[in-house]
Amino acid sequence: MSASNYLFTSESVSEGHPDKVCDRISDAVVDAFLTADPHSRVAVETLTTTNRVVMAGEVRGPQSVDAAQMESIARAAVRDIGYEQDGFHWEKMNVDCFVHSQSSDIAMGVDAAGNKDEGAGDQGLMFGYACRETDALMPAPIYYSHAILSSLAEARHSGAEPGLGPDSKSQVTLRYENGVPVGATSVVVSTQHGEELEQEQVREIVRPHVLNVLPDGWMCEEDQFYVNPTGRFVIGGPDGDAGLTGRKIIVDTYGGAAPHGGGAFSGKDPTKVDRSAAYATRYLAKNVVAAGLADRCTIQVAYAIGVSHPLSVYVDTYGTGKVDEEKLADSLREVMDLSPRGIREHLGLSRPIYARTAAYGHFGREPEADGGFSWEKTDLADTLRNAF
Q1: Catalytic residue at 23?
Q2: What is the pLDDT of residue 40?
Q3: Which of 33, 225, 233, 373 is catalytic?
Q4: So what's the pLDDT on residue 111?
Q5: Which of 57, 89, 187, 271 has its CA 20 to 30 A from that of 330?
């Protein structure tokens, strides 16, 4: 039996974190290929360090998206994030591009041919999760960790807080009573800042962005509110630490509150089920909870490379379900085609909607008019509710 009274912690990192800079560049490349041709295949990873960006991977798509354009994409992404410091500057950094054509062996497995439908772009397992802890049906610790950094980033970009730098991290620990979050026991925020700011000034800049995010009465004790606990954070971003695409998979998903299959999202087109099936399982889990069929729901799917249908669909409602889990799994297969093609078409994933996902979480966001975050819709809730 799981404990009902406990502490749970999740962290987030900002768009300026070195790994997130890489995710942003990789996803911007995906968007460029999908803009030029929605059938493009992209698997691009990025590495960053002091004044250097290196891109590598495999693509199949229009030749117009060449190394020169990918370099321009990288510079534009870094400029938009806000890096103009001596050790990492969008205009002065060196950019190397080692992206080449997709393997013909992989292409053969993914492409449709004859009676064969499009296959999964890789083998693997993916999880989706939803719960009632927040209005977004997300676990509360990761939801509030993202919101703190998103608020700080908005203030930095607007010019309201010019002393802040792009690189930051947050960490929120919540106390649960009877399985329900009731308040924060500690909050940690580390944010890059200008040399002119003293640490107490940074603390007071950060404070309202925590207070305005957490529910009333949830703020931790003052001695458990940590801001830049090292004492100084002037050198930040890839100049302070190397970055790599795909190293923040728990930040990207549920903050450790749910299982993760291990596959990263950024830099991959939606034929890669690491990405598209993780979106599909979040979509289904969220609709199960929105339909009132469970208070918590985890869904797992598994695929084999080149095979169109999922090898398994698993549902766990943690004892909160109102219907039989096996019947629920059958219903999920009926309301959504979980083949790679079916997922892409149902959620409209073959569009340039990915650069915006690279920071502050892929889940718990608002669906957007152009199809961004389509996996956050709850348009299947009535259908699922009526199936029982």
Answers
A1: no
A2: 95
A3: 233
A4: 61
A5: 271
Helices marked H in 13-168:
18-36, 67-81, 104-110, 140-158
Nearest 5°: phi and psi at 190? -115, 120
Question: Which one is catalytic: 268, 286, 296, 346?
Answer: 268
Phi-psi region of 75 (alpha: psi -120 to 50; beta: other; left: phi over 0): alpha
The yes-or-no answer on residue 19 being catalytic is yes
Catalytic annotation, pick one of 58, 80, 111, 117: 58
Is position 268 annotated as part of the catalytic site? yes
| Non-local CB neighbours of 269 within 8 Å, separated by 6+ positions | 30, 33, 34, 40, 41, 42, 43, 121, 275, 350
Would you call 135 a catalytic residue per the annotation?
A: no
116 secondary structure, DSSP code: B
Q: Is 363 a catalytic residue?
A: no
Closest CA relative to residue 353, chosen from 240, 265, 294: 265
334 is catalytic: no
Given the residues 23, 274, 295, 376, the one annotated as active site: 274
Is residue 349 within 8 A of residue 40, CB to CB? The reply is no
pLDDT at 1: 42
Taking the C-alpha atoms of residue 39 and residue 62, their distance in angstroms, rounded to an integer, is: 10
Q: Per-10-residue mean pLDDT for the chain, 388 residues long? A: 85 98 98 96 97 97 95 98 96 97 63 61 91 98 98 97 97 97 98 95 97 97 96 93 97 98 96 96 98 98 91 96 95 95 96 98 98 98 94
Identified catalytic residue from 169, 296, 344, 362 = 169
**Which pLDDT does position 39 carry in this prediction?**
93
For the question of whether the overall pTM of this predicted structure is more than 0.85, the answer is: yes
Active site residue 232: no
223 is catalytic: no
Q: What is the pLDDT of residue 108?
A: 54
Q: Three-state SS for 166?
A: strand
Annotated catalytic, 327? no
Residue 108 and residue 259 in contact, taking contact as beta carbons nearer than 8 Å:
no
Give the integer Cα–Cα distance in Å for 77 and 21. 8
Please tell me which residue in 156, 209, 247, 344 is annotated as part of the active site. 247
**Has 92 been annotated as catalytic?**
no
